[in-house]
């Protein structure tokens, strides 16, 4: 942090001036030099120990009252460093207490035994110097507050966008639940697939709504960090489904081409959901003796997902009318894409395509 090194840097520069003055001034007092160096060192302590540092410096500064008046010193200038540092750190109460005390010490040291006119000149110099350090410290504080406010506004906008995206996902999940429930009512036989889908998706919707409410309810800056809710990790979902199929005895390969870091909004939700549902179909209807593949390609124009497996006889051919495929197609359309499910030779292919021009649009829906 730049503010933390400002005081040590200024102290180091002043210490350099002290050493140069020691060399340039003939007959310079070594005691004055060591006192000045001590003042330089302690003036920077506030950057490390914000509460004790300025007080330690003040104790060292008091030593200047007791030294001979003919000692040539520069360490009094170090008092501007903690005044500046306290302003930067927002230690207003400590600054109001210490600044007049330090100012009194350096003014006393400067005007003692000086003619009236010169004494007023020294007094004016210290008043202007302390006022400048005070104002610069306040400027730092205001700048940092403005940056913090801008970051909070940007974070609030990001959270609002996430809430909109999550709203879209929940809305489409609930639509699919309604479709499955209507389908079960029409059949009148309580298909286990429909009941399983309704139970699973309804549970997911409850979790998503909790995330949404938490996003909208949190007001503390720490609690509304983006980590509270993240976009799905599509790569991790691919790995999970590969492991899931292999555990079930399938010979599966997976290939990802292109970066997936630019996926936003409902698109990663749609891709992950379609991938899971397609793998569910592989598990239900695929032939474990035959290889299957997951292909995910993100290029300059489209994002393509393909799940390919060997169909086990005519049973798989009769599945296109089922609402699992309808749900995948609805999810793809909701995210700005399309879904194609077909059988080619002995292969069953689920292919979801999201045009690149629609990816950002899908992320901004309300």
Q: Can you describe this structure?
A:
The chain has helices spanning 2-24, 30-43, 53-66, 80-89, 92-111, 116-187, 192-217, 234-247, 266-285, 314-317, 323-334, 356-363; strands at residues 251-257, 291-298, 302-310, 338-344, 347-355. With 366 residues, it is α+β, with helices and mostly antiparallel strands. A 5-stranded mixed sheet has the order 1-2-3-5-4. A hairpin with a 3-residue loop joins strand 2 and strand 3. Helix 1 (2-24) packs antiparallel against helix 2 and helix 2 packs antiparallel against helix 3 (53-66). The chain is rod-shaped, with a radius of gyration of 35 Å. Mean pLDDT is 79; it is low at 219-229, 313-321 and 358-366.
- Shape type: rod-shaped
Give the CATH superfamily of the domain at 231-366: Histidine kinase-like ATPase, C-terminal domain
> Which blocks of ≥5 consecutive residues have pLDDT under 50?
219-229, 313-321, 358-366
What is the mean predicted local confidence, pLDDT?
79
> Number of helical segments?
12
Largest sheet features = 5 strands, mixed
- Sheet/helix structural class: alpha+beta
Question: Based on DSSP secondary structure assignment, what is the total number of beta strands?
Answer: 5
Radius of gyration: 35 Å
Distance between the termini: 38 Å
The share of residues in extended strands comes to 5-15%
How is the largest sheet built, in terms of strand order?
Answer: 1-2-3-5-4
Looking at the overall shape, the CATH architecture of the domain at 231-366 is: 2-Layer Sandwich
Question: What share of the residues lie within helices?
Answer: 55-70%
CATH topology of the domain at 231-366: Heat Shock Protein 90
Give helix and strand order, one letter per element, not per position: HHHHHHHHEHEEHHEEH
Output the CATH class name of the domain at 231-366: Alpha Beta
């Amino acid at each position: 942090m730049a503010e933390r090194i400002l005081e040590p840097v200024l102290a180091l520069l002043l210490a350099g001036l002290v050493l140069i003055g020691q060399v340039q001034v003939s007959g310079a007092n070594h005691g004055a030099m060591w006192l000045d160096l001590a003042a330089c060192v302690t003036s920077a302590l506030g950057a490390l120990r914000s509460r004790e540092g300025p007080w330690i410096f003040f104790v060292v500064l008091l030593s200047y009252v007791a030294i001979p008046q003919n000692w040539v010193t520069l360490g009094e200038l170090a008092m501007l460093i903690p005044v500046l540092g306290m302003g930067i750190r927002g230690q207003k109460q400590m600054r109001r207490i210490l600044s007049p005390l330090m100012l009194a010490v350096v003014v006393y040291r400067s005007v003692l035994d000086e003619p009236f006119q010169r004494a007023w000149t020294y007094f004016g110099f210290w008043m202007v110097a302390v006022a400048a350090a005070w104002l610069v410290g306040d400027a730092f504080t205001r700048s940092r507050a403005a940056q913090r406010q801008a970051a909070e506004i940007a974070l609030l906008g990001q959270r609002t966008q996430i809430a909109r995206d999550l709203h879209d996902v929940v809305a489409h999940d609930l639509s699919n639940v309604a479709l499955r429930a209507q389908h079960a009512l029409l059949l009148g036989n309580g298909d286990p697939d429909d009941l399983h889908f309704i139970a699973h998706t309804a549970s997911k919707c409850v979790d998503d709504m909790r995330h949404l409410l938490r996003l909208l309810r949190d007001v503390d800056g720490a609690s509304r960090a983006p980590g509270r809710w993240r976009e799905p990790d599509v790569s991790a979902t691919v790995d999970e489904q590969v492991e899931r199929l292999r555990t079930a005895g399938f010979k599966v390969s997976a290939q990802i081409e292109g970066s997936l870091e630019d996926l936003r909004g409902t698109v990663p939700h749609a891709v992950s959901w379609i991938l899971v549902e397609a793998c569910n179909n592989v598990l239900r209807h695929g032939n474990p003796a035959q290889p299957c593949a997951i292909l995910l390609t993100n290029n300059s124009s489209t994002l393509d997902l393909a799940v390919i497996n060997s169909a086990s006889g005519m049973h798989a051919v009769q599945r296109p009318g089922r609402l699992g495929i309808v749900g995948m197609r609805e999810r793809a359309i909701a995210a700005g894409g399309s879904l194609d499910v077909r059988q080619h030779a002995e292969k069953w292919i689920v292919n979801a395509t999201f045009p690149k021009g629609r990816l950002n649009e899908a992320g901004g829906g309300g």
